[in-house]
Amino acid sequence: MNHLSDTQPDITIIGGGVVGLSVAMGLLQAGHNVRILDGADGDARASQGNFGLVWGQGKGWDFPPYAKWTSDALTAWPDFADRLQRVSGIDVSLDQSGGYEFFTDKAEMDEFAGMLARQQDIVGNRFSHDILSGDELRREIPGIGPDVVGATFSQLDGHVNPLRLLRALRIAVTALGAQVVSEAHVTGITAVSGGGFDLRLANGDSLGTERVVLCAGLGAMTLAADLGFRTEIRPQRGELLITEKIRDRLPFLSSTIRQVDEGGVQIGGTKADVGLDDSETLDVMAGLARHAVQVFPALADVRVVRAWGALRVMSPDGYPVYARSRDHAGAYLVTCHSGVTLASLHGSLLTDWIDETSNAPDLEAFDDHRFAV
Ligand SMILES: Cc1cc2nc3c(=O)[nH]c(=O)nc-3n(C[C@H](O)[C@H](O)[C@H](O)COP(=O)(O)OP(=O)(O)OC[C@H]3O[C@@H](n4cnc5c(N)ncnc54)[C@H](O)[C@@H]3O)c2cc1C
User: Fold this and answer.
1) Is it true that 11-50+163-233+317-371 and 234-314 share their CATH fold?
2) What percent of the chain is modeled with pLDDT above 70?
3) Is the CB of 181 under 6 A from ligand 1?
4) I need a surface site. Which of 49, 158, 172, 203 has the fewest CB within 10 A?
5) CA of 332 to the centre of ligand 1 (A)
């Protein structure tokens, strides 16, 4: 474990994944003294295994606050990427030049188009999208396979290099003065009478903090209850393939097939509820490869070099949770799927919400009282 400073921070963030680090960056830039306690390399870490999309299509069509929040996140990304680069010196390769959802089943496509129409009703002009038939698509993107019946397209969708994002955030928060402590597994949190919290670590140490933000991904499964939160976080496995680097640029970005800025093609998008098992499976990998070749047959000649499974961090309804503890003032729970997409807001507007400034966004709809029985 790195050396712990004796100074009590005004805010401790538990969890140094993309969520905790984004939240930390906003708080640091607002002038807070922040400590980040992170777990060990063996922890499930969605931030190290994700697809890197900055994506809006389909998000919140049945939950308007999430549709709007995601739309705000997409708009905020260019500024966030600039800020990150200024502080860390790292370009996260944000490319928001639009993304496709491809379909090989017409009924599925019609259903998704209906969802996007509802999303458009909620967000208005800020969410524009097109519906393309298979033939229109093949005219627009030569090389799309004959089995593709059509696609939806949204102009604001994009992607970043997710591992570089994580590195940029780590460097940025350190440069901004955070104390980042790894292998600091928090085993319990107790509210101290008179204010503040006592955090117990697995190595027996105990640390004090005025406020605490729980951003521990799946690690929050056990800690949330200590602070009176009701959210029951669950894992959901996604599997991914990555190909050898190819020289030519893939002529599209989709939610299941994207070319990393370094050249490899990443293929993914599966979902399985298998508890904490993050292994990859042969049948799912074969299905991913088949899908990629169906969409873009030229990929049949490209070699797969790596595959992995990673666990998503899911709330019971799949939407983010931004909650202030009702039992213990100064404790917050921040957890979500799509932590890459939402990083731009976690590193900006969420600071105002934590600080309860006059600019604070109204995040009441994301409170965890929605899970009260
Ligand atoms: C396969 C897959 C694809 C995805 N694709 C996308 C995508 O394209 N776009 C997108 O926006 N999102 C995507 N996501 C979701 C995104 O990766 C997550 O929302 C995000 O990484 C969650 O970050 P986190 O910081 O909450 O969790 P994590 O990355 O899991 O980080 C949690 C951190 O907390 C630490 N920790 C845990 N317990 C403790 C403890 N008790 N004490 C101290 N530290 C602790 C861990 O060590 C870890 O570092 C994907 C996820 C998966 C799995």
Assistant:
1) no
2) 98
3) no
4) 203
5) 17
CA 90 to chain centre: 19
Residues 6+ apart with CB under 8 A from 90: 84, 164, 167, 168, 171
How confident is the model over 300-307, as a mean pLDDT?
A: 96
Q: Is the CB of 157 under 6 A from ligand 1?
A: no
CATH 3.30.9.10 for domain 234-314, yes or no, is: yes
Query: What ranges make up the beta strands (E) of 202-285?
Result: 206-209, 211-214, 234-243, 257-259, 265-267
Domain ranges of the chain: 11-50+163-233+317-371, 99-155, 234-314
Q: Is 333 in the pocket of ligand 1 (CB under 6 A)?
A: no
Given the CA of residue 237, which atom of ligand 1 is nearest to it? Answer: 53
Give residue 74's identity as a one-letter amino acid code. Answer: L
- Asked whether the predicted pLDDT for residue 274 surpasses 60, the reply is yes
- Chain centroid offset of residue 275 CA: 19
| Distance (Å) from CA 216 to ligand 1 centroid | 8
pLDDT band at residue 372 under the 50/70/90 scheme: confident
Is ligand 1 within 6 A of the CB of residue 20? yes
Q: What is the spatial distance between Cα 208 and Cα 214, in angstroms, rounded to a whole number?
A: 15
Under DSSP, the state recorded for 28 is: H
3-class state of residue 197 by DSSP: strand
Q: Exposure of 167 by Cβ count < 10 A (0-12 exposed, 13-18 middle, 19+ buried)?
A: middle
Task: Compute the average pLDDT of residues 219-223.
Answer: 92
CB distance 15 to ligand 1 below 6 Å: yes
290, 213, 304: which is closest to 12 by C-alpha?
A: 213
159: Cβ below 6 Å to ligand 1? no
Dist. CA 81–CA 165, nearest whole Å: 9
CA of 301 to the centre of ligand 1 (A): 33
User: Would the CB of 46 count as within 6 Å of ligand 1?
Assistant: yes
Out of 2.60.120.1200, 3.50.50.60, 3.40.630.40, 1.10.10.10, the CATH code matching 11-50+163-233+317-371 is 3.50.50.60
